[in-house]
Design goal:
Elements: H1 15-23, H2 28-43, E1 47-54, E2 59-67, E3 70-71, E4 76-78, H3 84-90, E5 94-96, H4 100-103, E6 117-124, E7 130-138, H5 146-184, E8 189-194, E9 199-202, H6 204-210, H7 214-217, H8 228-242, E10 250-260, E11 266-278, E12 281-290, H9 299-320, H10 329-342, E13 348-351, H11 358-367, E14 376-380, H12 389-394, H13 411-414, E15 419-423, H14 430-442, E16 444-446, E17 453-455, E18 459-464, H15 468-473, H16 479-485, E19 488-491, H17 501-517, H18 526-534, H19 540-547
Length: 548
């Protein structure tokens, strides 16, 4: 077969504009419907479809399938013996200009469609995984010239971005459902309060404990549920939490609270209070247990608080972070290094100036690893008081020190099976460095005040804006720990070394802010582009985001 011998109709002169206008306002299912409709019309082909790849079953399921002027629902097929199989293997554009039935006799759908030609290309996610494909089929020979290929590639990339977004939204929804199930199935009363101490959520156990209905209680002040003294204490503790650093905004209320049921009867309750921020607003989580109805150890309350806080942190991270943006050579090298190390359990040390996105790199490593379904636990070593660091890392037994009223899991235990991100590791106290070195070497530790050795499986990703080699020379950092952390070093490049990435990032931040506020965003003028490129950005990406 000689592809050059077959003629084909040229695409509509305004094909690219037509497809762009057809899909511009659509998202999700509507986007895929609009894409295949307008792609088929613009290229003048019989069929067009976009699919999602199910690797385990080796099948493609159509998100939208357009044939002869109509949509076909619930279409899916195994790729074996079909024209779609080659691009799954090669990850490249596949074009069959003629005689597609003869080349793929095992595909039962080609002949009934009168198929003659085919063109398909895989949809690739940002990490290179195959998400699905975009394909067209016609009952005439197809000459895929440069214009057709360009149009096809443009909308393959657009479809991949939309399908990736749909999958991220799906993952976000699943996490939110998991959080809801966690809270709703808890045996303890869980109350979520806004910054004005109005009730924004109460779980079924809370309704039973206070003998009230969520439908009538939500949006109302929490004042009737506590005695005046306990309410005043809660407000004082909430104000105190606001002054604490991030990661340390939770506390145990050791003497309990006096709570009041809807029928006016009071009962003593043990409680924990934690503070978190979501979408710029402040919230508090109050977990209570009626002391008279206690059936489990008090440590469950603290464990539940931590689980809820970390799930919320993961959800918030998904809302705000999509990928490492940039097209510079420095970012290209960074992505290569992340891909090289992510699939291993190697310890990683991320260095770089403040504001260069070291936490984003750590999240990218975790999300691309086999541990992605387990938690990524972050510890800011500079934000934890020196006398609390050992307890924060390794946990403590009840009575280990003043205020230790219950047994508590540390960050290593919470990260078991997942990844522990040690941010600002250069600020860690020397005595804690020795204990951390043992965990890295032996994979075991003891709680503060305990004697039982616990085994854990944790991957360490550390980050610092300090020169640890110099800190070693100064005696402020252990050399043996540095060697243990510096197994695979990754340097986060400063913004001034990333060329035109500053323009891409500024545009991205501006568009995100515009979407949040519901306002249009103006294009960068040549004057502002020049200013952005000339400025040295000592605060790096964080400074750029704040300026934007």
């Amino acid at each position: 077969m000689n592809p050059e011998s077959h003629s084909t109709a040229a695409p509509h002169p305004d094909a690219l504009r037509e497809i762009f206008e057809g899909v511009a306002a659509a998202t999700g299912e509507a986007f895929f419907d609009a894409l295949v409709h307008h792609l088929a019309r613009a290229l003048g082909v019989k069929c067009a479809w976009v699919t999602e790849w199910h690797e385990a079953q080796r099948r493609l399921r159509a998100l939208s399938f357009w044939v002869d002027g109509r949509y076909v629902a619930d279409y899916e097929y195994a790729i074996a013996g079909t024209p779609c199989e080659p691009f799954i293997t090669s990850r490249q554009l596949t074009v069959v200009t003629d005689q597609v039935v003869d080349l793929f006799p095992g595909d039962p759908d080609l002949a009934p469609l009168g198929a003659v030609s085919y063109m398909g290309q895989p949809l690739l996610d940002t990490d290179g995984r195959i998400l699905g494909n975009l394909a067209v089929l016609d009952d005439r020979p197809l000459q895929a010239d440069a214009t057709i290929r360009a149009i096809f590639s443009i909308f393959t990339a657009r479809a991949a971005a939309e399908l990736g977004r749909v999958r991220r939204d799906r993952a976000l929804q699943e996490r939110e459902e998991k959080l809801s199930r966690l809270i709703d199935s808890a045996m303890d009363a869980i109350l979520e309060l806004d910054g004005d101490f109005a009730l924004t959520r109460i779980n079924p156990a809370g309704e039973a404990t206070f003998q009230c209905r969520a439908a009538t209680a939500l949006g109302q002040p929490v004042r009737p549920l506590f005695s005046a003294a306990s309410l005043g204490r809660l407000i004082d503790l909430a104000n105190a939490l606001t002054r604490q650093p991030q990661g340390n905004q939770s506390l145990w209320i050791p003497d309990g609270l006096e709570a009041i049921r809807a029928d006016g009867r009071s009962f003593p309750a043990d409680a924990t209070l934690s503070r978190f921020e979501l979408a710029g607003a402040t919230y508090f989580t109050l977990i209570l247990r009626n002391v008279d109805e206690r059936v489990q150890a008090q440590e469950r309350i603290r464990a539940l608080t931590h689980q809820a806080d970390y799930l919320r942190a993961e959800i918030e991270a998904l809302r705000g972070v999509d990928e490492i943006l940039g097209e510079s050579e420095a970012v290209h090298r960074l992505r290569i290094e992340i891909d090289q190390v992510a699939g291993t359990d190697t310890t990683v040390l991320i260095t770089g100036e403040t504001g260069t996105g070291k936490e984003l790199i750590a999240r990218a490593i975790h999300q691309r690893s086999a541990r992605k379904d387990r938690p990524l636990i972050k510890v800011n070593c500079a934000a934890i008081a020196a006398n609390l660091q050992e307890s924060e890392f390794f946990g403590h037994e009840k009575g280990a020190f003043t205020g230790a009223l219950q047994r508590r899991d540390g960050r290593f235990k919470l990260a078991d099976g997942g990844t522990l991100f040690l941010d600002e590791v250069g600020e860690m106290a020397l005595d804690l460095q020795a204990k951390l070195l043992r965990v890295l070497q032996e994979g075991e530790f003891e709680r503060v005040g305990g004697s039982r050795t616990e085994k854990i499986d944790v991957r360490i990703v550390a980050a610092t804006n300090r020169d640890l080699a110099q800190r070693v020379k100064e005696g402020a950092f252990r050399q043996d720990l540095w060697y243990r952390l510096n197994v695979f070093p990754i340097h986060a490049p400063p913004l001034r070394a990333r060329g035109d990435d500053v323009l891409l990032l500024a545009d991205t931040f501006a568009r995100r802010l515009a979407r949040q506020r519901g306002r249009p965003v103006a294009a960068l003028t040549p004057e502002w582009r020049a200013k952005l490129q000339r400025y040295d950005w000592p605060g790096n990406i964080r400074e750029l985001q704040n300026v934007t």
